[in-house]
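DATA CLASS: polypeptide
GOAL: derive structure tokens

***
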Amino acid sequence: MTAIALLQITGSGGAAGLLIQVLPIAAIFLVFYFLVIAPANKQRRKTAEMLTALKKGDRVLTSGGIYGTIQGVEAEVVYLKIAENVKVKVARSAITGIITGDAAE
């Protein structure tokens, strides 16, 4: 028998039938939440904290792959020194990470 025929035979099972139909959708949503949404929110929060903590003298990496040292910080702009006598103005959101320890060399 087909699935539609089986549903018609069982009738409208009331609350139990509704629960059986909604339960798989709820389970899929929960799995999706814990595998995709929660980690993305955690990463977004971590990045926002890192961007607010930027200060002069930090070594950073931009989304374009440029390493530099912060020379100045404004609301939405960061001034990076990328070489001797070379400074660039970069959007704060373009900073992808702070370089620490051995990676700074």
